[in-house]
Amino acid sequence: MSVRPSSGASSRRPSGQEPDARLLTEAITRLLRALRSSVIRTDYPRETLPMAQVELLQVLRERSPVHISDLTARRHLAPSTVSGLISRIVGAGLVARDVDPVNHRSSVVTLTAAGREKLAAWTRTHKDPMDAAYAALDDSERTVIAEALPVLFRLAEHLDEQAYGTDLG
């Protein structure tokens, strides 16, 4: 199986192959851009849930309730940014903010039923274009992707650990 970088990428190379990390970065960037474009162009012309909010909802789906400081660390955002995002999604009814039952001086946020449904709808909408593209691959290509997924998740963990010096798992 060969790596097929964009025609623009191959013309930028002075000689030989770019390092694997560079090609991986390009591939991920192109995948994200293509996925966003296909969704916006077809099924979701007016994006109603910004990506920063989606990412917070995804963390809350995995771990809820959670302190704002934990969300700040997990999403690598400034506390004021997370606070602002939480205020907007609390206002939309997607998240509830409550007093921490253990430490009454701090608060925790929890994903609401409305938040779960909104996130599920967002996920369904964004999954369809990927399903169609994935189905267009042959069996050997799908096998390569399936085998690479655990390594890609571990790569993301390494990037988090390098950037923030902590295991956020």
Précis, in short:
The protein is about 65% helix and about 5% strand. The chain is mainly α and about 170 residues long.
Explain the overall architecture.
The protein is mostly helical. The protein contains 7 helices and 3 strands. It has a 3-stranded antiparallel beta sheet with strand order 1-3-2. The chain is globular. Residues 5-15 have low confidence and may be disordered.
Instruction: Count the DSSP helices.
Output: 7
Radius of gyration: 19 Å
Spatial gap, N to C terminus: 33 Å
Strand count, sense and barrel status of the largest sheet are: 3 strands, antiparallel
Please indicate the percent range of residues in DSSP E strands (runs of 2 or more). Answer: 5-15%
Count of strand segments = 3
User: Low-confidence segments, ≥5 residues, pLDDT <50?
Assistant: 5-15
Classify the secondary structure makeup into a structural class: mainly alpha
Q: What is the H-and-E element order?
A: HHHEHHEEHH
> Taking all residues together, what is the mean pLDDT?
80
Query: What is the strand arrangement across the widest sheet?
Result: 1-3-2
C-alpha geometry:
globular
Helix content: 55-70%
